[in-house]
Prior knowledge:
Blueprint: E1 2-6, H1 10-18, E2 24-26, H2 29-35, H3 39-49, E3 54-57, H4 63-76, E4 80-85, H5 88-99, E5 104-109, H6 112-120, E6 125-128, H7 130-135, H8 140-154, E7 159-162, H9 168-176, E8 181-184, H10 186-191, H11 196-212
Parallel strand pairs: 1-2, 1-8, 2-3, 3-4, 4-5, 5-6, 6-7, 7-8
Helix pairs in contact: 1-3, 4-5, 6-8
The chain binds erythose-4-phosphate.
Family: Belongs to the transaldolase family. Type 3B subfamily.
EC number: 2.2.1.2
Pfam families: TAL_FSA
Amino acid sequence: MKIFIDTAETTELKEAFATGLVDGVTTNPSLIAKSGRDFKEVIRDICEMTDGPVSAEVASTDYDTMLKEGRVLADIAGNVVVKLPLTWDGLKTCKELTGDGIDTNVTLCFSATQAWLAAKAGATYISPFLGRVDDTGWPGMDLIAEIRAIYDQFDYETEILAASIRSPLHVKEAALAGADVSTIPFKVFQSLLGHPLTEKGLDAFTKDWAGTGQSIL
Ligand code: E4P
């Protein structure tokens, strides 16, 4: 499963990319607003940091304007993925941009039928929002499994991008349910690594090694 980082903060991305484990980036209008920076400048900066896919979301909701915005965003860099809402107009825009050879990420997916239509529209990625489904009292992970089953049954190439990830457990379960990608907030990415027994074990090894008085170098 690929790892994308869900952030518009370039300081976080610098640290994340330094691990060599990160395959791409997703942003959304709320993350851009939180950054307090110019949208196109942020996307340009992120695209200079990676050759991997960088999702940049349109701001309008009508077909004509989304199409124009999508083309402007795609012109920023070759690795921009145009993010579109899962609406009637969003899917029309997806179909059109896909026809132009532009990669798309259809976002705000909350049902398997929505995901099926996005695949039919040629979306490069579909973003089911796990955490937000969980918030309503339904298991978000079931959505990933259902989309996986439908996509496999009909050989759709659209990649399942598990979004609205809130915890390491979400990441693990998304991988088990067959997501192609998880887009993870930086803090959750950091917490994937930590385990108290790793720290405890390393402390013991370090102490015992010091007792030998030896040096490897
Ligand atoms: C995905 O592309 C979205 O940017 C993101 O995962 C939304 O997460 P949230 O529900 O925590 O805002």
